[in-house]
Amino acid sequence: MRIIATQLRPDGTREKGLIDVPEPAAPVGKQVKTRTLCSGMTNGSERNDLIRGNYARADKDLPAGWGYQNVGEVIAVGPDATKLKVGDVIYSSCDHVEFAVLDDDWLNVKLPAEVDRREAALFGMTSVAMRTCRHAVIRMGERVLIVGAGIIGQVAAQIADAMGARVDICDVNEERLNLARSIGAVERAVNTAGDGWQREIQEATYAVVIDLAGVPGMEDKLIAAAQTRGRVVWIAGRHEVKYTFNWGQGREITMMQNSHFDNDDLANLCRLVARGKVRIKPLLKDVVPVADCKPIYDMLRDTPDRLLGTVFVW
Question: pTM to 2 decimals?
Answer without folding.
Answer: 0.94
